[in-house]
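Field reference: sequence -> structure
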Amino acid sequence: MTDLGGPGNHRARGPGDGPEAVASQIADAVERLAALWSIAAQEASLRLSPHQLRALRTVQTAPGLNLTALADGLDIGLPTASRLCDRLAAAGLLERAPHPDTRREVQLWLTTHGQHVLADVATRRAQALATALAAMTPPERAALSRGLRGFLAAQHTTRGPDDGTRS
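Structure field:
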C-alpha cells in the first residue's frame, strides 16, 4: 500500500508529484474507503454480501428490470443471477413479478424490507464517512472536495457517459 503522507512517511513528497504518485495515493485511499464501506455495511441490520448489496442497488436503480439485465449489470451469468435472486427473495428483500406484456419474462422489484435494508446500509456508510471526514481539518476537507470535483470534471470530459470512450 502507498503511504498518504502521514506519520512515518519516508518518501519526500513535494508539489511536483506527478500523476503516477497521486494515482498511487488515491489507490491507497480507495482501498481504505472500500474497507470502511464494507465494515459499515456489515454493521447494518441485515448482513449481506457485497454481491447481494450490488444486486439490490441495481434493482433499486432500475426497478422492474429483468433477470437478464441484472446479470448483465452485475457481469455474472444468468444461472448465478437467478440463484442470487432466489436467496434475496427468500430473505424477503426482492420480489419477482411476471412481466405484464411477456409471460416468460420476470421483473424484479425491491420489497419494502429491501428498501429499508438499503437505507440502513446507506445511513451507516454515510455516518462512517462523516466520522472519517470529521477527523480532517476544514482546509483538508475543502481541498479534498475541490480535488474530487476536479477529478469528476476530468472524467466527464475524457470519457463517454456510459461506455468509457473518449468524448
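Note: The first helix runs from residue 19 to 42.
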